[in-house]
Amino acid sequence: MKRSHALPVIPDDLQPASWLIVRARAKKELFLQNQLLQRDFDAWLPEVKRFRIRAGHKEQFMAALIPGYVFVRHLCDQCPDLSFIPGSTGLLMHDGSPALLRHDDALRLHRLCALKAAPELASHYCTGQQVTISSGPLKGITGIVSRTGSKHFLMVESGINGIMLKIDMTKNVVE
């Protein structure tokens, strides 16, 4: 039976379970959450209050805490195929398995959503830090983190003296 006007779920201690991390299409997080709820999944989109100036007036709106992701409570041993759901690009994978958000981490994210000043998304990479790409076609390549504006890049030696390659860390999995 499909839910007609299902309410979003939130992490709680009544059902302590991990959460599957579903990747959403650009700016489709709320749409994806609604699609999942209509299909009887326990879907959660952590949202925070943000402010913007429009026509000279301060305006409040709700935005995803972590853009691009919606969470689904993982209640069974099987992982459903969520790539067919409108707004989804499938599960976030790590080492060939679906990535999970632990129950305690979900509770922490939920508490962060209630802060008066919404937290900002930040990378745990620091300029000058040495990191290694953990998956994808560049797996195993090591480089140094650099920054241009708000973007982080991995600077990798090409093997030719004085020529470095700059890899966008937001488009490649780096650990």
Summarize the structure in words.
- The protein is mostly beta strands and 175 residues long.
- It folds into two domains: 19-112, NusG, N-terminal domain (Alpha-Beta Plaits), CATH 3.30.70; 130-168, no CATH class.
- It has two helices and 13 strands; from the N terminus they run βαββββββββαββββ.
- It has helices at 29-38, 103-112; strands at 19-24, 43-44, 47-54, 57-64, 69-73, 88-91, 93-94, 97-98, 100-101, 130-132, 142-148, 151-157, 164-168.
- The strands form four sheets. Strands 1, 2, 5, 6 and 9 form a five-stranded antiparallel β-sheet that branches. The chain has a four-stranded antiparallel β-sheet with strand order 10-11-12-13, with no helix packed on it. Strands 3-4 form a two-stranded antiparallel ribbon.
- A hairpin with a 2-residue loop joins β11 and β12.
Q: What is shown here, in short?
A:
With 175 residues, this protein is mainly beta. It has two helices and 13 strands; from the N terminus they run βαββββββββαββββ. The protein folds into two domains: 19-112, 2-Layer Sandwich (Alpha-Beta Plaits); 130-168, no CATH class.
Tell how many strands the DSSP assignment holds: 13
The computed structural class is mainly beta
CATH superfamily of the largest domain, please?
NusG, N-terminal domain
Instruction: State the CATH architecture of the largest domain.
Output: 2-Layer Sandwich
Please work out how many helical segments DSSP would assign: 2
Q: Provide the CATH top-level class of the largest domain.
A: Alpha Beta
- Give the amount of beta strand, in percent: 25-35%
User: Approximately how much helix is present in the residues?
Assistant: 10-25%
Low-pLDDT residue spans? none
Summarize the biggest pleated sheet: 5 strands, antiparallel
CATH topology of the largest domain: Alpha-Beta Plaits
Mean pLDDT across all amino acids: 85
Provide the number of structural domains: 2
Spatial extent as radius of gyration:
19 Å
| H-E order | EHEEEEEEEEHEEEE
Shape: globular
Between the first and last Cα atoms, what is the distance in angstroms? 42 Å
